[in-house]
Amino acid sequence: MREKCAVLGIRSTQNVFDSIYYGLYSLQHRGQESAGLAVYNNNEIDVHKDMGLVSSVFENVFLEGKVGIGHVRYSTQGDTRIENSQPITIGYGGGSLAIAHNGHLVNGVELKEKLKKKGAVFTTDTDTEVIAHLIAQEHMKTGDFVNGVGKAMKKMRGSYSLTLLKDDRIIAVRDPNGFRPLVYGRNGNQEVVASESCALDSLGVPFVRDVKAGEILVLGDKIESIRKTRDKASVCMFEYVYFARADSVIDGISVYKVRKNLGENLYRAAPVKADLVTAVPDSGITAAIGYARASGIPYGESLIKNRYLGRTFIMPRQEERERGVRIKLNPIKSEIEGKRIILIDDSIVRGTTIKKLIDQLRNAGALEVHVRISCPPILNPCFYGIDMQTSDEFIARKFRVDEIRKEIGADSLVYNNIEDLVDAIGLPRERMCMACLNGEYPLEEEQKKLVS
Ligand code: SF4
Q1: Core-most of 12, 127, 217, 257, by most CB within 10 Å?
Q2: Is there a domain that residue 443 lies in?
Q3: Whose CA is nearest to atom 8 of ligand 1?
Q4: Model-wide pTM > 0.90
């Protein structure tokens, strides 16, 4: 399961290249396959993008401009190739625009076919380019770019947090369900929109507010907010559980606090006698701290992560997968030997990694391994921008909890239930997407019918 992407947009009285570079650095956890930025300068849009991490993509590069957008990508739709990296630019009768997108359109294929019939030519296989052409067409129809964005939103179904660069303005857009986060911040000389508040912190730009679900926020000579669609907010619960950085705040709620609450709830649901609370790094650490504080059992490290592999590390041969877990995570025998261990992680998808980690802990001398999982069992695919569109491999679809426990070799296994998850996040249940857990898809009706 991988993150999606991150978007950024900055309008300043000075060159924005450095700010976009550092802002993207702080959003790198959301995508490591490619990075890019686009700036507006001398009535033109200049773009630089490439495959790789932010640090390598922008080495020895500088683009001039006081308005720009940026993107880091992990592909959820479209192949891993340079053409699909973002920002994407298109030229049309209304000039040119650049777009950066986090999310996934459930009706992207249908929209693309309709746009092709109207003459749009596509150079990528992303739904981001579909959005760009749709906005361009609506702009041409209405004669006003922002109106065109609003009209396009009425036809788009799915998840999208966007930053658009049009002339010297940035237009930030969050879909009516607010699946993916988007925040706005401002200081004396720059205005910033970003996928997560940690980017504002890294730039020293005070957070002002979240971009609301269904809102178009225009950063120009003056700031303009337009609500084009009714707010049916259903923010992705996984942003809190796993995807977002722990120091980010989404829709007014601290991600760190949610993860700590999840750990505390796990303790209350299933206390067990043990000597050490430990985590699968890094995803389980905050919940493990919460569990340890609630239980009084000391927290400590038991597995050391190799931080230089990158999230896209893939073993070259199937038979080397076993070794792969050892290369990524190695147990600390002196901390484990002779102890009863509580091992915390954020979620279980296929169960293969946690099974190998439990083996490693036992081989290092653990007397007992009790597994606690922040997220309730994942049962259904995601159509809103997370890389799990097929449920075939979900272990929770094949086995009941006790069978999973046996399968992974744990002494006990407890997941948070949905009520405890809702309690930990603190948002009203109806304002969250939890479709991968409960099958209640916020866009179920829209997924069935195509846009007219
Ligand atoms: S289905 Fe799951 S992963 Fe996808 S948006 Fe909803 S909560 Fe998030």
Answers
A1: 127
A2: no
A3: 236
A4: yes
